[in-house]
Design a protein that fits this description.
Blueprint (H helix, E strand, L loop, with lengths): L11 E5 L16 E5 L10 E8 L4 E6 L10 E7 L4 E6 L3 E4 L7 E9 L12 E4 L4
Antiparallel strand pairs: 1-2, 3-4, 4-7, 5-6, 5-8, 8-9
Keywords: Repeat
Protein name: Fibronectin type-III domain-containing protein
InterPro entries: FN3_dom, FN3_sf, Ig-like_fold, RTP_Phos/Ushers
């Protein structure tokens, strides 16, 4: 039986296993190593460095950095934006997205979250306040 606590999520470990009986313990060799990986989970941290690359009167292109602790493979990002009366979301498989159909010269609040197969863990980026371009 193997009991391990305190292992990191979605991390690789190199273990050595030896048999033990009343007579004694088996010798360890390099062939006794086994490699295991802990299971994927939801992120423990949000996407970082959300910023605007370019704006026009109706679009805004954004980029961000992946979470520091994704705890798995990031399958999708969800970008949410609102101007107080209008809200929308955009999905992306890469750490960038273009928001479309913006109102000219309007303030928007934007956030992004990252999803693994297990969800986003309620890890939402800091809010980016941006202004769309003029006509």
């Amino acid at each position: 039986m193997l009991i391990s606590i305190g292992l990191e999520k979605y991390s690789s470990y190199k273990l050595r296993v030896a048999a033990s009986t009343a007579v004694g313990e088996s010798p360890l060799t390099d062939e006794d190593y086994i490699f295991v990986m802990t299971l994927e989970d939801e992120p423990d941290s949000p996407p970082r460095n959300l910023s605007v690359v370019k704006t026009t009167s109706s679009t805004a292109t954004l980029t961000w950095s992946p979470p520091e602790k994704p705890n798995g493979i990031i399958r999708q990002y969800k970008v949410s934006y609102t101007n107080g009366t209008y809200s929308n979301t955009v999905n992306s498989t890469s750490p960038s997205a273009t928001l479309r159909y913006l109102k000219p010269y309007t303030h928007y609040n934007v956030t992004v979250c990252a999803f693994t197969l297990h969800g986003h863990g309620n890890q939402i980026s800091d809010t980016l306040q941006m202004l769309s371009g003029e006509d």
